[in-house]
Amino acid sequence: MVFIDRMFSEDPGDFGAVLDRHPGIDAVAIIGDDHSVAMKQCPAAIRQAGRAMLAACAARGLPTLVSGPDVSDHPDVYLDAGATAAVSGEVQEVLIEWLDGHRAIEGLHGTRGAGGRRAPMSDLDSLPAPAWNLVDLAAYRSAWEASGAPWELNLSTARGCPYRCNWCAKPTWGRSYAVRSPGRVVEDLVALIDQAKPDGLWFTDDIFALKPGWLAAFHAALDEALGPRPRLPYRCLSRADLLQDEGVVALLAATGCREVWLGAESGSDRILEAMDKDCTVAEVERAVGLLRRHGIGVGLFLQLGYPGESLADVEATASMVRRLAPEGIGISVSYPLPGTVFHERVAATMTDTHWEGSMDNRPLFRAPYREPFYTVAKRLLQHEHAVARAPAAVEALVRSPGRRSLRRVLACAAHGLALPVARRRLRRAARPDPDAVPAVG
Fold first, then answer.
1. Helix 214-226 × helix 246-254 angle, to 10°
2. Which residue ranges form the domains of the chain, and what is each CATH number?
3. I need a surface site. Which of 50, 187, 316, 441 has the fewest CB within 10 A?
4. What pTM was estimated for this model as a whole?
5. Which residue from 74, 108, 104, 79 is spatially nearest to 91, judged by alpha carbons?
6. What is the mean pLDDT of the chain?
7. Among residues 387, 391, 337, 392, which one has the least CA distance to residue 365?
8. What is the tens place of the pLDDT at every residue in 308-367?
9. Contacts by 344-350, CB closer than 8 A, 24 or more apart
């Protein structure tokens, strides 16, 4: 078996040359990352890369199986591009059955497939431990160190999300949820620490430690496995409404959590309700306060341009950033992913089907305002965030003087000068689109 990692390759056209370095290969599985946002938002680029890789396999007479979020929704696109078989749903069990020569495989389209969608696995502990020895971990370490950031590796404990946010697509798992046992997670974590010695971890679950009691069991398993050894710092994703209990937050800190990213989305409860977020601004504020109390940093994911969002709603989001001063923010214009309620609502007004790259970050439908408004709004949020973080930047400079910390302070000052201008520009750009998708309700 050969694992060909395409993370550091910018040219899918060189896949043939990579295959030629491994003449013993007799079948190829091209597997996309089910957690990757770009896989969902930039299907044209994903399909172009897929076609190039499939062509390289076909030229060498190699049968191919493909999987990933876009494949799950559009298996025929990949079959037409030359794939032998395409998976709708989870790939692991399907891949084994395909390699073993099974026929009428559930969730497989194409040769030896029964079609349909593969039901998600319920027992994730049945999966073997990750074969980290097949991965060039040194390349990842070098990339992280070159960026000046601590070296992190990704690890998953669960699959799926049972919540109903109407803009979130779930092409692989639907609204199902399955989680590995804490003991198995700790086994893999300890093995990874011993083998790769990363500086930290990023748990890629949509929602970390969602299952009641899981976090306490994880804490106990870590204590048993590591004893007095320090806990490896980690970052994760969660929901504000799950972090209202101080005991839960204390357990996060005790297990090594150093940063939690929350899908805050908006500083307006009206917009959160329209999104079916089932979470409030007050819950975000309390969660941030509890996390800070226990030494855990916070990142906030924010959306702009959801149907019905007004200038006042955008200003409420800016105010939330100003009040909470999160360690990081991620800003996106609302994206109508196929298969979502949100997509159904705006489909008739869509002016484009996808972004070419994840940095496009522009409306694809008739949003409440024209595109220039959101360009200004994104800058405003960045300015607000930098100014809110200025006290922390000054503290860092006093604590550890140096060029890097000085640059941060100067950058905060520059953002402070730009902030009043951005506020005025936002108000001038706030010209409602008369053909915008109406607000929900």
1. 30
2. 12-115 (3.40.50.280), 124-352 (3.20.20.70)
3. 441
4. 0.94
5. 108
6. 95
7. 337
8. 999 999 999 999 999 999 999 999 999 999 889 999 999 999 999 999 887 889 999 999
9. 345/307, 345/437, 345/440, 346/307, 346/437, 349/435, 349/436, 349/437
Burial class (CB in 10 A: 0-12, 13-18, 19+), 7: exposed
Burial of 398 (0-12, 13-18, 19+ CB in 10 A): exposed
149 contacts 141 by C-beta, under 8 angstroms: no
Distance in angstroms (rounded) separating the CA atoms of residues 158 and 254: 20
Which residues, in sequence order, are bridge partners of residue 66?
30, 86
Query: Which one, of 212, 192, 110, lies nearest residue 152 by Cα?
Result: 192
The owner of tokens 């929602």 is 207
Contacts of 142 (CB under 8 A, 6+ apart): none
Q: φ, ψ for residue 384 (rounded to 5)? A: -60, -40
Closest to 254 measured CA to CA, from 289, 221, 212, 300: 221
- Between 38-42, 92-96, 197-201, 248-252, the lowest mean confidence (pLDDT) is in 38-42
- Calculate mean pLDDT across residues 63-71: 96
